[in-house]
């Protein structure tokens, strides 16, 4: 690779020497899977290091969805999204917008929920993109809806049920409705949108964008039954036995893990998803002066930032490993720190302390890192005798979420709060039942949920066509 260009800082040029072009980044990239030959992060990196000047007008730069799957899997620890980001910022500074405009067209033509994705995945604003250009891009993406604004007639008689209305469910419903299937979506909450509505902060995704996508879905004929929890308001078996010929389970990961320590039941100890949901519902939250957030993922980061926006004066994240092991996106961590969130690494809560039923603080252990555990990250080991006390008015617990799967029949295999599927076609162990999104992967990203929804829709169509053909030939 030719690495002499001054467009790329020396540190990154040096790190590029360690890329041995294994292609794992491309193999793990959801955008590469969604766009087939139109996007390949490994080739893009290679091209950048050969001739960065030429790549400033390249649309691929803008097609990275910031999911960090490539970084998480890269054996050399390279961060492709941040390398692309450098060039995007340079392109914006030089007024070179051709690549961005081309990318927006590709997103419009190939990615379901394109407006939602522009806000939550592609982040042109991080390259200091002018708000006028951002607005033009939104307009371009909205033309898709304007062009197709008519009710679709179902051309198939086989009805499909989608359980859960997050990005995985919405995508599957879009694609199946476009193929002409009658689709009914069941949603436990009072409005559709999944984690985009329940958890995601409004500063990242304006709710109007979400409402518009859902309105468009309805024009395609999709029926959305909100306030209908499968397993409570309607049983899984009723759906399966009566009306529907195929089911797609896209229930996300909404069950929070507990710390499992003394004092967890005290007033002032709150679950991160409940806290974010309350804020998104515009309900009153009273956090007090000092807030601690336990966890190191994106939910912990968002909860900490929102706690600051809600008026807490000091917000501290307590994370049991070091910065390198933090699962949150590096970019999000930097943004939180810029806003004033502090992070205490290598600490783990031992006991939540309280008085008169209310939290006063947390007794913590210092930790040291041992051998890697099953996640591949080094295991935090409490250091005996290292206990110390931190005062807090509220503790927000954000140590991970799993799927609530107790409503499923035994034929649908699950493991540790995840539904097991064949990742090629999203088939579960039960015939005619498919699953995808966070319920399968654990907490992940919008673009991964969209890919799962798309694969499931394709697979459901194949399954229903094969079943129909078999029934026809049986005559
Ligand atoms: C705070 C926060 C911020 C995030 N920010 C980002 C971001 O900036 N970018 C990004 O890419 N990703 C982000 N994510 C992750 C992203 O939102 C998820 O990966 C994505 O929404 C998963 O989609 P899904 O369709 O699998 O499930 P979900 O979006 O979780 O939707 C599942 C839906 O199923 C419903 N449901 C559950 N059980 C039942 C049942 N039995 N019957 C009927 N309905 C049911 C739920 O109410 C929910 O509406 C964030 C997540 C959180 C929590
Ligand atoms: S996974 Fe890492 S080492 Fe392999 S090609 Fe991609 S950037 Fe290079
Ligand atoms: S961050 Fe995600 S979308 Fe971007 S190159 Fe890596 S895997 Fe692909």
How would you describe this structure to a colleague?
The chain is an alpha/beta fold. The protein folds into 3 domains: 10-146, Fumarate Reductase Iron-sulfur Protein, Chain B, domain 2 (Orthogonal Bundle); 159-254 and 403-474, 3-Layer(bba) Sandwich (FAD/NAD(P)-binding domain); 255-400, FAD/NAD(P)-binding domain, CATH 3.50.50.60. 40% of the residues lie in helices and 17% in strands. The protein contains 19 helices and 18 strands. The strands form 5 sheets. The chain has a 5-stranded parallel sheet with strand order 3-2-1-4-18. The chain has a 5-stranded parallel sheet with strand order 6-14-7-8-9. β1, α11 (167-178) and β2 form a beta-alpha-beta unit. The relative contact order is 0.11. The model has no long low-confidence stretch (mean pLDDT 92).
Q: Write down the overall geometry.
A: globular
Just name the CATH architecture of the largest domain: 3-Layer(bba) Sandwich
Number of helical elements: 19
Measured between the Cα atoms of the first and last residue, the distance is 63 Å
Which ligands, by name, code or SMILES, are bound?
flavin-adenine dinucleotide, iron/sulfur cluster
Low-confidence stretches: none
Total strands: the figure is: 18
Computed structural class: alpha/beta
Give the neighbour order of strands across the main sheet. Answer: 3-2-1-4-18
CATH class of the largest domain: Alpha Beta
Beta-strand content: 15-25%
What percent of residues adopt helix (DSSP H or I)?
25-40%
